[in-house]
Amino acid sequence: MTTTLITGANKGLGHETARRLIAAGHTVYLGSRDAGRGRRAADELGARLVVIDTTDDASVAAAVEVVEAGGGLDVLINNAGIEERGENNTVIGAAEVTADTMRGTFETNVFGTVRVLNAFLPLLRRSAAPVVVNVSSGLASLTGVSTPDTPGYGYPGVAYPASKTAVNMITVQYAKAFPEMRINAVEPGFTKTDLNGNTGIQTVEQGAEIIVRMAQAGPDGPTGGFFDAEGTLPW
To answer: Catalytic residue among 29, 153, 155, 160, which?
Structure first.
């Protein structure tokens, strides 16, 4: 039996990923900052609830204890993330972004990812086939955002793409440090979720596809890569 933890899974892409992996036979820990919303989602899906705030050391440590008591961990999906937006749900561009905006975004998207990864490493290293999936973004691609006529070129934000570019670097360095693990970054695509005020152009079912696929990577699967549903993406 494969045991999987998904952070930020009480809604959106995390919720759909949990549903799909449960259907595939995984035992899923549904990670949620809010116990009430998490309990409702876990009960609906048949998942195990673990309350986890990725920005809080004590919360993450407590989550490790819960998962360890349940028997261990094989797959970690770092899905929790935020995109800071301004008034009327507008993206905060280079002229308006502040250090505080950057700090808030990085606290969840970057430091939270590292905090969770480090905390769960001992459990993952005991697994026969450990897998880590870091949910990134096409906006993390420096090639994409600097190439005219690509989807990401016109995006004006700074904090969110910078944070996801950092997630990609974290992915590469962890993959090199732990070659026995399959550690990859994925781009779900511009999906309708609360993260972007439901302005996305695809469904959570479509967006979860690459997350689910990489969560099931075998020992001979790729590692240290950046993928969307169509294949490898440029850094």
So the answer is: 160
